[in-house]
Design goal:
Blueprint: H1 12-28, H2 51-64, H3 73-88, E1 92-96, E2 108-112, E3 116-120, H4 126-141, E4 146-150, H5 160-167, E5 176-182, E6 187-192, E7 202-207, H6 214-226, E8 229-232, E9 240-248, E10 251-261, E11 277-278, H7 283-296, H8 312-317, H9 321-328, H10 335-354
Helix pairs in contact: 1-2, 1-3, 5-6
C-alpha cells in the first residue's frame, strides 16, 4: 500500500490522472444547465488510459476547452491536489491547526442476563487497561465465559501502545499483535503482548464507521488471535500513524506515514475492517442509545420484555396493561448489541452440541 509522502515527488502519471479526473469534473459542470445535448458516447474509465492518452487528454483540455483560460499552472496544481486528497482518503487531509485531544468517554462494564460480560471500552488510556484487567478478573471469578467488547464509544486515537496493552489482557504474553509499516514497506514498530491473558472465552467485538485508529488495530488483532467475531458495520479504515506538514497561514497537511498491519489479515487502511455480521443502526438512534446506556446500562435496550396482555382482571379494574407497557419500554433497540448477544447464545449452543456425551 502506497502512502502520500510529502517530501517526495508524486509519480507523474498518477498526478496527471488525478488532474485529468478533476478537470473533467470541474470544467464540464458548467455545461449541465445547457439545452439537451446530443446523446453522449459511453464513458471510458480513467484507469483504462495509458500515460500517453492521459497527457493527450490533459493537453486538449488546457488548449481547447471553453474554460481553458482557468486551467493555468495554479489551477492544474489545485486540481491535482484535490484529486490526490480524494484518492488517498482517509489517509490525507488538509487541517487547520493541531488535532484536538480525543473526547472523554468513560469505561463501563457489567453483565447482561447474568452470564454475558459487557465492556464499553471508552477512551484508550492507561486507566482503561487497569479497569479492563479488574473487570476480566471479576468475570472469570463469576464464570462468565463470553464477553462483548463495544468499541463504538471509543474516540479515534493513534495510541497503538494502549491498544496493544488492552489486547494483552486477552492474548498470552509474547504473542505478536501488529506492526506499523511505512511508505517504503519498512516495519517501524512491532507490538507484542506484554500482559497476562485474563480471559480465554468467547469474544464478540462491536464496531462501526466511527471505530478508527488504535481501536481498529485492537479489533483486528482480537479477530486474528482470539477468533473474535465482529458485529456492526465496516470501520473507518484510519488504522494509520499520521504525520503533519505545515503549509503556512495556519494550514497543515495531515497524511498517513505508516499503516497498521496484522499478519495474516488484509490491510485495514484504507477500506477498514468488514464485520462478520453486518448490523446497521440509524445514526441518530445510535447516538441516543449510547448516551442513555452510559447512564442506565444497556440491558433495557437489548432484552425485550414480554408485553402484558389485556385480561379479565385488568378489565375489572379499568386499566390497560398494554398501554402502560408501551409507555415503559425504551424507544429504541441497540441492534448491534442485541445481535452480539444472540451470536454468543448461538456459539454456546453449538459448542454444547459438539461436546461428547457420556456413555
Amino acid at each position: 500500500m502506497k502512502f502520500f509522502k510529502f517530501q517526495n515527488t508524486v509519480a507523474l502519471s498518477a498526478s496527471l490522472r488525478h488532474a485529468v479526473a478533476w478537470l473533467l469534473f470541474l470544467t464540464t459542470s458548467s455545461l449541465c444547465a445547457r439545452a439537451p445535448a446530443e446523446k453522449a458516447s459511453a464513458p471510458v474509465g480513467l484507469d483504462s488510459l495509458d500515460a500517453a492518452q492521459v497527457r493527450q487528454a490533459l493537453s486538449i483540455l488546457q488548449e481547447r476547452h471553453v474554460s481553458a483560460k482557468s486551467l493555468d499552472a495554479d489551477g492544474l496544481a489545485r486540481a491535482t491536489l484535490r484529486g490526490l486528497l480524494d484518492e488517498l482518503r482517509p489517509g490525507a487531509e488538509l487541517v487547520a491547526g493541531e488535532p484536538s485531544a480525543p473526547a472523554l468517554s468513560p469505561f463501563r462494564a457489567e453483565t447482561l442476563a447474568g452470564d454475558v460480560g459487557y465492556i464499553r471500552l471508552g477512551l484508550l488510556q492507561p486507566e482503561t487497561v487497569t479497569e479492563i484487567r479488574g473487570t476480566l478478573k471479576d468475570f472469570t471469578a463469576r464464570h462468565v465465559d463470553a464477553v462483548v467488547l463495544d468499541l463504538r464509544a471509543t474516540p479515534e486515537s493513534t495510541d497503538y501502545g494502549q491498544a496493544a496493552a488492552v489486547a494483552g489482557c486477552f492474548i498470552p504474553k509474547g504473542a505478536p499483535l501488529f506492526s506499523l509499516v511505512d511508505a517504503e514497506g519498512r516495519t517501524t514498530r512491532t507490538f507484542a503482548s506484554e500482559g497476562v491473558s485474563l480471559f480465554d472465552g468467547v469474544v464478540v467485538v462491536i464496531a462501526d464507521g466511527s471505530t478508527a485508529g488504535a481501536a481498529e488495530a485492537l479489533a483486528a488483532v482480537l479477530r486474528k488471535q482470539m477468533q473474535a467475531m465482529i458485529v456492526g458495520t465496516t470501520t473507518s479504515g484510519r488504522a494509520v500513524e499520521f504525520s503533519m506538514a505545515p503549509l503556512g497561514a495556519g494550514g497543515n497537511l495531515r497524511f498517513a506515514s505508516a499503516e497498521v498491519r496484522v499478519e495474516g489479515l488484509p490491510p485495514i487502511y484504507p477500506r477498514g475492517l468488514r464485520p462478520d455480521f453486518e448490523v446497521v443502526q440509524n445514526a441518530s438512534e445510535r447516538g441516543e442509545i449510547l448516551s442513555d446506556e452510559l447512564e442506565s446500562g444497556p440491558s433495557s435496550f437489548v432484552f425485550e420484555r414480554e408485553r402484558p396482555r389485556m385480561n379479565e382482571a385488568a378489565l375489572a379494574s379499568g386499566v390497560d396493561p398494554e398501554i402502560d407497557a408501551r409507555e415503559e419500554m425504551p424507544a429504541a433497540v441497540d441492534r448491534p448489541l442485541q445481535r452480539a448477544v444472540d451470536l454468543i447464545t448461538a456459539i454456546r449452543f453449538f459448542r454444547k452440541k459438539d461436546l461428547p456425551t457420556s456413555p
